[in-house]
Amino acid sequence: MSRTIGIIMIVIGVAMLIWTGFTYTKKEKVIDAGPIQVSADKQKSVNWPPYAGGILVVGGIIVVLTAKKTT
C-alpha cells in the first residue's frame, strides 16, 4: 500500500515540475442593478513553486525504497 502511495507521489511530483500551475475562467458579476446584470469573464491562476514538485518526487522515492515488500 505504501509503495502505491510513493508511486502516486512521484507521478504527481513530476506533473508539478512540468506544469507549474493552471488558469481557469470564472464569471463574476460586475453590475447587479435590479433586472440589469452585467457579468465578465475573469481569468484566475493557481501556481505552485517548482520545488514543491521536487519535494514530492524525493519523498515518493524515499517511500518506495523504504516500503516493506509484501507477498
Structural overview:
With 71 residues, this protein is α+β, with helices and mostly antiparallel strands. The chain has one domain (2-66). The protein has helices at residues 2-18, 50-66, and strands at 21-33, 36-47. Helix 1 runs antiparallel to helix 2. The longest helix is centred in the first third of the chain and has 17 residues, at 2-18. The relative contact order is 0.30. Keywords: Membrane, Transmembrane, Transmembrane helix. The chain crosses the membrane at residues 7-25, 48-67. It comes from Mucilaginibacter ginsenosidivorans. This is DUF3185 family protein.
How are the secondary structure elements laid out?
Layout: H1 2-18, E1 21-33, E2 36-47, H2 50-66
Antiparallel strand pairs: 1-2
Helix pairs in contact: 1-2
Number of strands: 2
The percent range for strand residues is 35-45%
Question: Strand arrangement, largest sheet?
Answer: 1-2
Q: On the 0-100 scale, what is the average pLDDT?
A: 89
Count of structural domains: 1
By DSSP (H or I, 4+ residues per run), the number of helices equals: 2
Sheet of most strands = 2 strands, antiparallel
Give the proportion of residues in helices: 40-55%
